Amino acid sequence: MSERPLCPVCNEKPVAVNYIKEDVTHYRASCDSCIRKGKKLKPIPPLWFKRGYRKKPQCERCGFKFKFPEQSTVYHVDGNLGNCDQNNLKTVCRNCSIEIDRGRISWRPAKPVLTF
Ligand SMILES: [Zn+2]
Ligand SMILES: [Zn+2]
Predict the structure, then answer these.
(1) Is residue 9 classed as helix, strand or coil in its secondary structure?
(2) Which residue, of 27, 35, 50, 53, has the fewest CB within 10 Å?
């Protein structure tokens, strides 16, 4: 019996065989029943989500009100994706995110908060 990896979606059944070519078996990403049910691996939540940050309903730069979650993205003010401090996170629209990325504008930094 060949080593068929376990389905990463349900962790119960072996993954389905996609095709066999030159004696090499190519597998699918999940098992037959998961494919049939249309089950997919859940996307890993981003770090900011795990740290308790939630996207705002509108863009914090231009004020655009989001109709769909795909229109918004979370921007890290200091550019460090590992810094998920609430003060470092801004919800911006796709448009603003592109403008910031291209370096045409920079995020106007908030006044430094003194902590003792
Ligand atoms: Zn499965
Ligand atoms: Zn915007």
Answers:
(1) coil
(2) 50
Q: 23-48: per-residue pLDDT in tens? A: 999 999 999 999 999 998 888 899 99
**Cβ atoms of residues 55 and 71 within 8 Å:** no
Nearest in space to 25 (alpha carbons), one of 2, 43, 58? 2
Q: Distance, CA 97 to ligand 1 centroid (Å)?
A: 37
Who contacts 33 (Cβ-Cβ below 8 Å, separation ≥6)? Answer: 10, 13
**This prediction's pTM:** 0.59
What's the CA-to-centroid distance between 31 and ligand 1, angstroms?
Answer: 4
Which tokens is 12 given?
A: 């119960």
Percent of residues, the chain, with pLDDT higher than 70: 87
Judged by its nearest atom, the ligand closest to the C-alpha of residue 37 is 1
The rounded Å distance from CA 5 to ligand 1 centre is 11
State in Å: Cα 6 to ligand 1 middle: 8
Mean confidence (pLDDT) of the chain = 88
